[in-house]
Amino acid sequence: QVQLVESGGGLVQAGGSLRLSCAASIRTFLSYTMGWFRQAPGKEREFVAAITSSTNTYYADSVKGRFTISRDNAKNTVYLQMNSLKPEDTAVYYCAASIGSPYNLRSYMYWGQGTQVTISS
Cα separation of 121 and 110, whole Å? Predict the structure, then answer.
């Protein structure tokens, strides 16, 4: 049974930082591209960042230069360091695992339950 469990969400002021973690119970974690998506109220789920098994990274334009994705294969964990946070970053953030395109939501096979991130102005 594959499980992805996010943690690290919370409420911070604009300009602050948060670090999200996603612990994955996947035997072949190294084989997967790991991604972060987010969904704000009334909006579609959108791509935020992804990291491949060879540690190539991809970011949405809206977070480039502010967010950093990383992975620790020894711990089966992926991280999202979020700096210079803005109110428009407020959303539920989801961790997901893919064996396909890092950008395509439909290529992700496994999803976490999400963690709320709220940025106050």
Answer: 33
Tens digit of pLDDT for each residue in 66-115?
Answer: 999 999 999 999 999 999 999 999 999 999 999 999 999 999 999 999 99
CA gap 85, 92 in Å, rounded = 14
Per the CB < 8 A criterion, the answer to whether 113 and 6 are in contact is yes
Backbone angles phi, psi at 89, to 5 degrees: -85, -5
* Tokens, residue 10: 């919370």
Tell me which residue of 16, 67, 64, 62 sits closest to 40, measured CA to CA: 62
- Which H/E stretch holds residue 119? strand 115-120
Q: Taking the mean position of all CA atoms in its chain, how far away is CA 56? A: 15
CA–CA gap between residue 18 and residue 48 (Å, rounded):
15
End-to-end CA distance of the chain: 40
